[in-house]
Amino acid sequence: MNYFIQIFGCQMNISDAQRIAGLFDSQGMSAAAKPEEVDFFVAIMCSVRQMAADRVFGLEQRIKLIKKNNPKAVTILTGCVIESDKKRFEGIFDRILNIKTLGNWPIILDLGPNLAENDYFRILPRHDQDFSSLIPISKGCDNFCSYCVVPYTRGPLVSRPANDILAEVQRAVAGGAKEIWLLGQNVNNYHFGKINFAKLLRAVDSIPGEFWIRFTSPHPKDFNEEAVLAFAQCEKATPYLNLPIQSGDDAILKAMNRPYAVKTYTDLIKKLRAAFKNYRKGLEREIAISTDVIVGFCGETKLQFNNTAKIFREIRYDMAYIAEYSQRPGTAAAKLFDNVPIKEKQRRKKAIDRIVKTTALANNKKYTQKTVEILVDSVKNGYALGKTRSYKTVKFPVSGYPAKPGDIVNVKITKVMAFGLLGKICDEK
Known about the structure:
The chain is α/β, with parallel strands linked by helices. It folds into 4 domains: 2-120, Rossmann fold; 127-236, Transcription Regulator spoIIAA (2-Layer Sandwich); 239-365, Transcription Regulator spoIIAA, CATH 3.30.750; 368-425, CATH 2.40.50.140. It has 13 helices and 20 strands. It has helices spanning 11-26, 50-57, 60-69, 83-90, 105-108, 150-154, 162-174, 197-205, 225-233, 250-255, 262-279, 302-315, 342-364, and strands at 2-7, 30-31, 40-45, 74-79, 95-96, 132-136, 138-139, 158-159, 179-183, 191-192, 195-196, 212-216, 240-242, 288-295, 319-324, 371-380, 383-387, 393-397, 408-417, 420-425. Strands 2-1-3-4-5 form a 5-stranded parallel beta sheet, sandwiched between helices. A hairpin with a 2-residue loop joins strand 10 and strand 11. Helix 12 runs parallel beside helix 13. The longest helix is centred in the C-terminal third of the chain and has 23 residues, at 342-364. The chain is globular, with a radius of gyration of 22 Å.
């Protein structure tokens, strides 16, 4: 038997896919090259925005083709699935399974005996890219942001035992991982016994080996002084952070149930930047910061949007993931009046994008003619794509150099753009 997994959404869903693949592999199954010729088809859903849900509904034609080729094929939907969508999905998929019950899937799907360990975290993942490993440290969320369904679909925050996390990191590093991503819907709210996120970060940093540490997605309210200090002092922790702001207006943040003020957020950014200047050297003294923001949230006035634009100019982000607000049934915000017209949401999105392009380009100019370490992601047609430690995308020619995914190479930057760098391989460090 074989299977195909289609992923929608974030890195947590990619991590889910790796554990589903590991489970299926343990049952003697193999990954299929083509999604239309499978025994099991799994779609991992994201429900953050309505658009994400709509993409899953778009699978209906593919599933009909799968059934035509193999009437006995089983189609499965998992991930973040809200109750109000289940009836519509039941007409498309054979099974809608909770990802938290992954250890029970062998029984549910008649694959074989139940796993001895039915804990989601203890299912060994299959990493298609051995050089980059996604390590979940917690699941679920207690925050109940008014626009978000994660607490309803993933449940309350549950932190994983620290020893299990460290063991998985050690296995990944022993297997050749050069990049470790610590994952959680609220990653820096990790707490297991006496181990909090800062202590866990230091413990991962102390594991022998040459590898980079990244993490996502943190919440501003949980980034305390201890975590700021640990982040800056851990040498393997890369100087990049995605810190969602969601809005630059206090009234909108309150409506979103984001329990921090704009000043609290900007003060945190200042603390992070100061800590990296104190404890890092060279280019790493300037931490690269990206964010998530929602424009056109319920009731957002032009003045409130302008407050967000002002904060973007002040903080000078390196990147931003900009979303136009879309109503999701089952969330607290669904009871609010979504009164910002679509065209106005689009205008606001473009305005923020213009600001970010300006600040990102200015931030990137410091890389001109500098030599940086690049972790190669892919090689194609004589060029490699990779990331700096600060998560900048770099493209460079590899003619005459046997570069491959997972290599860390020195590249001299010859040209900078807002969201990318160009360079050439060199021996200089």
